[in-house]
Design goal:
five-stranded antiparallel beta sheet, Veg protein, Protein_Veg
């Protein structure tokens, strides 16, 4: 199913407080992986509170990065 920007924003906002994993394409077969909790959803970006062992403590991502497939977002299944 193809999602538009409005659908992506709604999907992200519906998972506030959930565990999240974001895989970012870093070019030439490299990726960066971020694991944490989705804590904020603003009009242009969403904020992930990263696991305690990672620096910095927070990371922000734009919804358009999901749309353009520069990042892949997965949420931990709720019990």
């Amino acid at each position: 199913m193809e999602m538009g920007l409005v659908d992506i924003k709604s999907w992200i906002k519906g998972h506030l407080g959930s565990n999240i994993k974001v895989v970012e394409q870093a070019g030439r077969k490299r990726t960066n992986e971020y694991v944490g909790v989705l804590v904020e959803a603003f009009p242009a970006v969403f904020i992930v509170d990263l696991s305690a062992s990672e620096q910095p403590a927070h990371a922000s991502f734009t919804y358009t990065k999901i749309l353009t497939e520069d990042i892949q977002v997965t949420f931990e299944k709720r019990p």
